[in-house]
Amino acid sequence: xxxxxxxxxxxxxxxxxxSTVQPTNQTTVANLKSHHKKAxxxxxxxxxxxxxxxxxxxxxxxxKQIIFEELLRLxxxxxxxNYILALIYRSEGKMQESLDKLQVCHELEPxxxxxxxxxxxxxxxxGRHKLxxxxxxxxxxxxxxxxxxxxYNMGMCFLFMMDLDKAKEHMNLSLQxxxxxxxxxxxxxxxxxxxxxxxxxxxxxxxxxxxxxNAEVLSNLGVLxxxxxxxxxxxxxxxSAIAFDPWNPKATVAVASMLQTYDDYDQALAKYKVVxxxxxxxxxxxxxxxxxxxxxxxxxxxxxCLKRAYYLSPFDWKILHNLxxxxxxxxxxxxxxxxxxxxxxxxxxxxxxxxxxxxAISHLDDVEYAKHAYExxxxxxxxxxxxxxxxxxxxxAVSLFNHKKFSESHxxxxxxxNIIENGSGVxxxxxxxxxxxxxxxxxxxxxFVFPDDNDQDVITSGAVAPPAATIPGAQPRKRVTTQQxxxxxxxxxxxxxxx
Amino acid sequence: MMDPFYLAILRYxxxxxxxxxxxxxxxxxxxxxxxxxxxLKTRALTEQVRVDYLEIFEDGxxxxxxxxxxxxxxxxxxTSLRTGTARxxxxxxxxxxAIRPVTQSGRPLSxxxxxxxxxxxxxxTSLxxxxxARATTARPISAxxxxxxxxxxxxxxxxxEGPFINVSRLNMQKYATHDGLxxxxxxxxxxxxNDTKHALELATLASKNCSPRxxxxxxxxxxxxxxxxxxxxxxxxxxxxxxxxxMLITYVGLAKVYVKMDQPLAAIEVCEKGLEKFPLDxxxxxxxxxxxxxxxNMSISVKLYRDILSQDSSNIEAIACIGMHHFYTDQPEVxxxxxxxxxxxxxxxxxxxxxxxxxCFYSQQYDMTLNCFQRALQIAGNDCIADVWYNLGQIAxxxxxxxxxxxxxxxxxxxxxxxxxxxxxxxVLEARKGRNDQSVAFFQTSMTLAPHLFEPLxxxxxxxxxxxxxxxxxxxxxxxxxxxxxxxxSKQLFDKLxxxxxxx
Lengths: 499, 504
Hints:
A: mainly alpha, Serine Threonine Protein Phosphatase 5, Tetratricopeptide repeat, 27 helices, disordered C terminus, B: mainly alpha, Bardet-Biedl syndrome 4 protein (chain A), TPR_rpt (chain A)
């Protein structure tokens, strides 16, 4: 039966189905043998128990054999046999056959809401969401009591059709009739699609109260808390997720990356090792492992991990950014430049990448382009603050100083001072402070005036280092590490050819 | 005036076979029954076309597909070179298929092209699939038989005035009794005439006549059986030769026979026995290294190749294989050293320059990368230009220049329409732009061209899943898992979809 021919009314069946299901007047050997048992065979559903038994044991082949015998005997008129056959076909992935069998069932008993629901489900799996919704509505008409499954599935259909409001409505209805964690998860998904993490957290909190031992829900909740910046709660949620399912990769990666942000690299590495068992080819895990080694100052190991991540997922700008950062540390500025430009090609709106690029260019002695890069970084940072403005401007000043543009450097340094003065809550790292003072002292010797001249800790003139050589391009401390979602696409491998 | 026959022998030693043959022909014109001259001419003719038969010995496409010599169709993991595509991570040694690409038969890509390294089809693959196998030394369709015939006709032309020996009128019985004549005659029949049937006849008679029994004839008998596609008989004769006198060629031949019968472990055992008699012999070590590579025991294979290098420091195969191993285990700098060594040795091919370029790129020697690729493009022939473009596309992707990358992949496809990897990568590039329909079309092409890759399958399943076509996604991801059972992302997707399909 062609599905397109009756797509408006998928419930209808055509006459040919029952005839194609099987040839009619054939007597099997089994039938001949069991002549004396005819009394027993009369009832059409007397072997349904056997079918059921084999089906629940997942012995699909035996089950199918019995079903075929039954259908032959009953001339295709057994609803239950057809129904189970449809389910088996579905789990084998033969959707069209499955749908055909369900249509037969529907014809045999048009008032059975369950059959209609299964038809709808088949349509849903085939990606025909609109038809599926129609079928579900029909099922609801047949069966008055509202049922959680139907609403949930309708919600899923709406979700795939990107009709978020309707999806939410149906999910709510589903939760009212029966509480399932799937419905909660779908609700949270809708909330995230609407960009409201707080709402999603609320939904998950409710779910956790009902299902306190569901590792999946717990880990999702933990990750959301991480995104919202509530590390303490996130940690406890993820911890309980791991307690219930020690092999849950999502929770483990999330915990590890949190440990990493708090500089506990050894613990984080141990966690990643566990995750590696289940996903050896995940670029984000390799990236995080690389950054762990970076934190431990094992640069070679770090580079080789990051390179593997980059090999596995060449279009991930974070990995390229990290590689650039690492090569800056290794003082391989040309390589750093390449990685950073690649990263910028992929994601041109990150001010931090531009800042690193500027540092690299400044070390390659092209001060004009370095200035361009800094300006771009500052421009981007105004729109969307992702980099510490103190570090950014300070780096600018240092680069200018290194290239003997003292007056411009002085300007920038004054700007840094203003930022520190105005933003009361700005926390300045020790390193930055030290660099700030060193540059300032060096400039003061050249008789530049600073607004904070009454500052206490003026370094005595004898201690001033000869400037350009010693002042490092203030090394940015920020790292881009956590990236939980593991959804990169596999790229065809490199194929260095044969000799 | 020097004795012409002496001169002929001299020329033969100097490997100036043409002159040797003309001299012998003169001698034979004066005295047609001069056995020495006849024998020398036969040998000179043979030497012109002689190749190491065991080295080029390769299953033809038909033999590979309709093979009946293997014992078990579903062999246990690690005991067969043909079954079982990707092994589970527990038993795998070396990089996973996600890192190191695999050939059509599911084996990891090897460092050198040699007969059977990439083409060998596994049983069950259809014939047209086997025919599609790319990049073999000979085009797969003109398998072994074709090559022999070609060599045969070529030698006929050089002799000018019809065949030197009229095979059908030979009295085998007579020649078989005379060892000095029989051996050159046999080689002539085997290598130049490619008349295996007559060669076999001669060898059988000769091996019966000679006493004490001669290992040489046994080996030749085995070679004849091997060429006739009867490895079991060949094995018998190799074994007999070993009993008479253990020789190197016998061990190598026996190993080849076992590989043909798909008993790699037996082959390794034979090689080990051979190494007891001939310690550190390069050809035995090479044989073992190849088999271990096929069995995916990478570290053992590389160790063997290193042993070879300590004996013969300019063994191209060993250098290339070790280099490739280093490349795929995240040490492009080390790989670069090996490939540079090859360049110093005078290997000058597009493939080598491509490899050098890739190694340079991944070890951040950017200034050399494009130079290498330029050189590769200049000297690449039609058979490998597609791969050069493809790899250049990888460099472009490494620099995140997607336009350039997609141009490269398109060029790769235009020079080889069967380049499945290029299709896959084009699909990924399209998917990044959000053009799902086009990318699915690319993935589908890639999938039909190379059913052994898991990437296009997974990519396609992922797209199908995202647009809600769960049914297709479910079916396709199952196929991806068949190709690479350990792929974590595919497994995740499969588990997610399974829930949809098995709940009510």
